[in-house]
Design a protein that fits this description.
about 140 residues, mainly alpha
Length: about 140
């Protein structure tokens, strides 16, 4: 397959995960995710005060996520150009988003409710897997010695 096509596929997968992440943020914001999250973190910190998980205000949380989404979208042209330094970033991005999706679905199963953010979680799983696969395909060829 031509390298230009590989980079286009990689960039489309990056963009797809960013779109899925944006939908996920909207899903969380509209279904009251932060309220559940803050309750869980507060309860966990009472038992384990060393846990590094913060409690957020809605405005701070949403601002942080919107800035992250803008930054991720802004990297898309660099992915399209095949910048090698973005490959580890892409793997981390894919794994974090898949873990996020699994986390929402796991909380749903554990609590016996459809937890906020769970509706869009399958999109994170699929788009994250797609990014991981296309990142692997877009890596530069290694020389055989």
């Amino acid at each position: 397959m031509h390298i230009g096509r590989l980079h286009r596929s990689w960039a489309l997968a990056w963009l797809a995960l960013t779109a899925a992440f944006a939908l996920h943020v909207a899903d969380e914001a509209l279904t009251g995710f932060l309220s559940l999250y803050n309750q869980i973190v507060s309860a966990a910190r009472e038992l384990y005060p060393w846990l590094p998980f913060p409690v957020f205000t809605f405005d701070g949380w949403l601002t942080m996520l919107v800035v992250a989404l803008i930054a991720l979208a802004a990297l898309t042209p660099l992915v399209l150009r095949g910048h090698v330094w973005l490959q580890p970033v892409a793997y981390v991005y894919a794994v974090v988003m898949m873990a996020n999706g699994i986390g929402h679905l796991s909380v749903s199963a554990y609590l016996g409710i459809w937890a906020p953010g769970s509706t869009s979680s399958p999109l994170l799983l699929v788009a994250g897997a797609l990014l991981a696969v296309t990142t692997r395909r877009a890596r530069p060829a290694t020389s055989k010695s």
